[in-house]
Amino acid sequence: MNHKLQMLFSKNKGYLTKKQLPDKSTYNHLLQLVDEGIVERVKRGVYHYESAAFDNTMIDIEKIVPDGVLCLYSAWAHYDLTVQIPQSFNIAIEKNRKIALPEYPPITLYYWMRKYQEMGVIKQKIGGYTVKIYDLEKSVCDAVKYRTKIGLDVATEILKNYLKRKDRNLSKLMGYAKQMRVEKTLKTYLEIGL
């Protein structure tokens, strides 16, 4: 790999898009490296070069799933709300969107209505990338909303861990719960003291 490509990959934490390449000869060299198996084509126009310098637990979500938001198990693990280890990157996108996913890294898409997909989105620096993720309270409400799919024990664990946090905001939590139509369920959980 030539020095120019190495510097570009290094600058972009192991990911490059075709638009970031300065000229046609660099692009041709990149395609040659893809053919040789040195660089991975993640999806059309997005390339990944993995070396020890880029070993990371996060991916550049915006390049692989534009407008995707880290959610559910990925968000709960980030906030230390559960001991469950995500088996893939959990990413919420708007319902009816079509996204071509790469074979690697493992990504699970969740198709949500626009109002839920856009609710509570913040940007955080995780593993060297600025990624969209749901804030703490929205992530807890997601656990309540999807309690039957994830299991009541996981939902209870998340809520218990949230209530132990000093940075919790119960009025914000209840606001999201009302918008997501899980306010009654959340109140029941809180009243019985888990």
Descriptive overview:
With 194 residues, the protein is of the alpha+beta class. The chain contains ten helices and eight strands. It has two domains: 52 residues; 131 residues, no CATH class. Strand 2 and strand 3 form a beta hairpin. The N and C termini lie far apart (56 Å).
What is the mean pLDDT?
88
Radius of gyration: 20 Å
Strand percentage lies at 15-25%
Oligomeric composition of the shown chains? single chain
Distance between the termini: 56 Å
Number of domains: 2
Summarize the main sheet. 3 strands, antiparallel
Tally of separate helices: 10
- Quantity of strands, as a count: 8
Shape type = elongated
Unreliable stretches: none
Structural class designation: alpha+beta
